[in-house]
Predict the structure.
Amino acid sequence: MSEIKDFIEKNSPRFLEELFKLIRIPSVSSQNEHKEDMHKCAQQYVVSLMEAGADEARIYPTTGHPVVFAQKIIDPRKPTVLVYGHYDVQPVDPIELWKSPPFEPEVRDGAIYARGADDDKGQSFMHVKAFEYLVSTGQLPCNVKFLIEGEEEIGSPSLGAWARENKELLACDVMLVSDTTMISEEVPSINTGMRGLAYVEVKVTGPDKDLHSGHYGGAIANPINTLCSMIAQLIDEKGRITVKGFYDDVIELSAADREMLARAPFNLEHYKKSIGVGEVTGEAGYSTLERTGIRPCLDVNGIWGGYTGEGAKTVLPSYACAKISMRLVPNQDHKKIARLFAEHFKSLAPASVKVEVKEHHGGQGFLAPISSPMYKAAAKAVEDVYGVEPVPSRGGGSIPILAELEGILNAPPLLMGFGLERDTIHSPNESYLLSQFHKGIESIILFYKYYNKN
Amino acid sequence: MSEIKDFIEKNSPRFLEELFKLIRIPSVSSQNEHKEDMHKCAQQYVVSLMEAGADEARIYPTTGHPVVFAQKIIDPRKPTVLVYGHYDVQPVDPIELWKSPPFEPEVRDGAIYARGADDDKGQSFMHVKAFEYLVSTGQLPCNVKFLIEGEEEIGSPSLGAWARENKELLACDVMLVSDTTMISEEVPSINTGMRGLAYVEVKVTGPDKDLHSGHYGGAIANPINTLCSMIAQLIDEKGRITVKGFYDDVIELSAADREMLARAPFNLEHYKKSIGVGEVTGEAGYSTLERTGIRPCLDVNGIWGGYTGEGAKTVLPSYACAKISMRLVPNQDHKKIARLFAEHFKSLAPASVKVEVKEHHGGQGFLAPISSPMYKAAAKAVEDVYGVEPVPSRGGGSIPILAELEGILNAPPLLMGFGLERDTIHSPNESYLLSQFHKGIESIILFYKYYNKN
């Protein structure tokens, strides 16, 4: 193990230099202006994977942004690990809150600061370096494939179809993923489930043009007021989502399961302090960890309408819009939920407005098996590195494509995430601790060793 | 009368050319980038007023944008008319909806299209041209003063103090204002009351930074959802504003008064069609004209928060904001209402968020006397030009400063407005009909003649 640590320590400056090459490419998948950058970033991953020792690495076009695929087959009879990651990142707004430019990575206080530092360039790159170690030292114990996609942040609209067409190429025994968090460096955890996601955009239109609020105010429906009322009705006073049929497919956890989840250490005061809120809130009858781990939720992710500039403008606007997402639990179908939402939302509209509901991306939630050899190998690897046994946990986020890939490839996902809450992914000043970057590489190397022994 | 018509017709091209000089200066009072334009526009008014025959015209500095003052005193014993207008205009957003650039006036289908074409450059300029006619033909029957301010669209924050300091300069018997609409060209009307205005901006803050909605969604208050719920609670199911004490000072109109107002011709189907709405709505128990004329209302003029760009971003934002205005009826004090609103709005906030309420401009509503000689002169002038007796009407908009000036100068306002609904002031493609521009000038000239005879 000391040999592994030495390798990581000695090569750390080079690893960072290589990672920064990936980070500097602004591969924001949701923004058309970055279309070229997507290709550049995929190309850079190909270079990294070939340098790390892949037999082949190439870019495959899809109907959307391209995917990167690489592999090293040492023996077709041996098991195959498919590493899944993504090279696309979230937009950087609000840009003014970044302390250093999002695409100029900077190390401060032992952490890399940049968009993608954690999610998912930093985390996916740990796998490239673990792979390099195993190949360069002749210790690779099984076949390895890499699937690095460019549309995770927009819901992987093209990957499912591409994966179905390339099922043989992707064939594997386990999907290894580092795109989640652990509880803390002191309390390492391995994710055993993720929430699904349904994401819609709504538009409420009143008059066919902006009007003077003095001349018309009081006599016609203001689309902003109306949108607010409709949104307010989506969650009741007990924190439950009012969309008809929303909870039909939610499986209530047993008392025993809830008790097990409650073992994960959690300090409410620390949690509140870390995000600057005075009180937590949510569905009645559930703890904070349950609310984000095993219960669905509904959040408005964006809202706009009318005059939002400096000063005052007395306009009664023509329309107002909102982006609304619902996190789902396993067994809830995101397509069904999006449909139920659209029906329900339209039913809330008064006759005085028109409503449009557009569906953005979505994905199913899933549960990873805990008792499997792969989970045990991961747990042993993490325990070796962190000195304590990892806690099984449930993540509130979504990697919508994983449930789909699991169905296509008939291989379970294993979520070894090394991100921390403090990394504030998707927000300004995203970061990734160097210590986690190093421990992650070490844990992944050990995972391969223990997994192969099983 | 034919002589007046001839004058207007003959000089119309020149009038337009002069008006366009004013319109081309983008005097948007609410935007700092136009600070210089405010001064330029005031200067251009000085030029126009001197050319029209004023004894003196000059710019006076205030604590905000400058005011233009001009006068012609023919005999201190004669009555004095103070023309009030404003040279500032509203912002032009959303700019992409303009068919021609907002500050490049264009005549299409018998109307001027530009920001300020009606409000209030077009309307105030009619007074300059009526004045020119009376002076140039030696028919000016009384003293005339002009007060053209640059902050009407932002609530005239500086004019009250300046007017108090310059009370003698502004001394007058009546304030003549063209900054409102009439019902239609076929049904001319004279405005006998305006609503007041309280305008606030609110900010609801949850976490101290943007968060990943998957990791935190369901466990903490989303500031957009919270803001929507708070806004939804501001108006009840009967269309009444729930702010505590809001209606305390509202004077209910008598059945007779309401009956008189109901005489104004109004076609609901035409009204709905003109703004593209399927249904009207508002406070229960009142007609559409009453809802905009004699009842207060509350409108969200703008809202923003979270991710509003292209595509989907799964952010749980740190804050959400809204601009909210309340139109008030005479006897409601805008300062009291703004205070009541702030108290009430804060009381709606759950413990999980922080709320800030910032007061923008405001102003009192007022009622103009109908039985006065000045109203009768205006009514006769309008009847001469339009061929039918004008209807007294109540406008839903606000000219907040008028109530204040009335108090300072002890002179009643007379609202001879020539705008039409179709002008869509404050919106893209603001326009002003040439026919109204011409009839307005003619009506104003006749007003002076009849007013002096009283």
About this structure: Chain B has a mean pLDDT of 93.
